[in-house]
Amino acid sequence: MKTKMQKADKQGTAVAEAGRVLREGGLVAFPTETVYGLGGNALDAGAAEKIYAAKGRPSDNPLIVHIARMESVYELAAEVPETAKKLMDAFWPGPLTIIFRKAAHIPYETTGGLETVGIRFPDHPVAQALIEAAGVPVAAPSANTSGRPSPTTAEHVWEDMEGKIDWILDGGSVGIGVESTIIDVTGEVPMILRPGYVTKQMAEAVIGPVATDAAVTRQVDETVRPKAPGMKYRHYAPKAPLTIVEGEQRAVVARINALTDQAIAKGKRCGVIATDETQALYKQGSVLSVGSRSSEESIAHNLYAVLRAFDAEGVDVIYSEGFQDDHLGSAIMNRLRKAAGHKEIYVNS
Ligand code: TXA
Ligand code: MG
After folding, report:
1. Which end of the chain, N or C, is less packed with Cβ atoms under 10 Å?
2. CA of 250: how far to CAs of 246, 247, 253, 264, 274, in Å?
3. Looking at the CA of 236, which ligand is closest?
4. Is the C-beta atom of 35 inside 6 A of ligand 1?
């Protein structure tokens, strides 16, 4: 298949054409405010199957359904609880996916066999215009090959999807850089299944106490099924093994310098994920700053691009500094821990 990549123009010609492709059962990658999505008609079982094939993704991992109007949720959810209405009012359009009981006409191919459906109203003009143009709800996982870091530019999508999908709508680099927060409102207590830009504190300010699924912070074994099936896979992973080093800043820098010394002595090529504050303190290896510690937003924005840069460079091992596991930092550490397969070292000064 020949993949067409085109800038989303002001006149909306590209968006209109891509919308038609979606309506007719094709696949279109598009920018959202979080990461690029790989879209297909959410009501078409065949489109969902094509999405799984293009990503190389297990088909028991459900897709998020994207809408461009608040009222669409009432057609897709069997029930819209009060807590969900409060979350929708506060955070939609925006980087929040809400899990509902699904309406009967959503195919199980879209929901990975589940009776629930994740719905999101993205806050990106191209995403909204595309969904409107398609005239159908759009199922869209992140537009990466399964297991690779999510794409935050159209070029990342091209790397993974060229030849496998019909269209890539280029909307430049995305704003947030990590996937949406997922909150399940089908149980007694609302539960975060995946942390994101909408933090636990932000959600609690609107709906009161919110729990967090165990699979968010630690590796769950085979007997514990994470609520978001996607959380069980080694996700967001760079090709080289990654280790996170956490603790007081000077001790972390010293340990990473010692680790890169040892690795280089064995002939390995090292990547170091540093910050603006520490970048100059690393002595060897390929050192990339992921952003400034004074702005968690900058770190979220750059994280996947840095992991992809190390893939392109072909390093053998990667060491990363750790981050505060709170607010947006919870989303950053969740993705980093998955990328590391939960390999973490704690150092004391
Ligand atoms: O920001 C985002 O959410 C991006 C953009 C494109 O919107 N999409 C995204 O989709 O990250 P994906 O497929 O890469 O991740 C979806 C996650 C998976 O971990 C999946 O298991 C979970 O959401 N999920 C989807 N539907 C679910 C459901 N009904 N119940 C529980 N988890 C669900
Ligand atoms: Mg994904």
Report:
1. C
2. 10, 9, 5, 21, 12
3. 2
4. yes
